[in-house]
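Sequence only, no structure available. Ideas?
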Amino acid sequence: MFKLAALLYVIIAPTVMGTLITVTLVVESLYNGVGISAAAALGAAIALPVSWYVAAAIRGPVKTLA
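Reply:
I predicted one. C-alpha cells follow.
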C-alpha cells in the first residue's frame, strides 16, 4: 500500500499546497515569504495522512486467511 500512497502523494500534495498558497496570497496579512513557506509546509504535512487514507480506501478491506 506504500507504493499506492506514494503515487497518490505526488498528486495530492501539490494540490493541497497550491490551495493553501492561494489562500495565503488572498489573505493580506499572510502575504509574505514566511506565510507562503508555512502554507507550503503545512500542505505537504496535510497531504501525508490524506494520501494514506485515500490509498486505504482504494485498496479496500484487507482479507485475512483466518
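Helices lie at 2-26, 33-59.
Hope that gets you unstuck.
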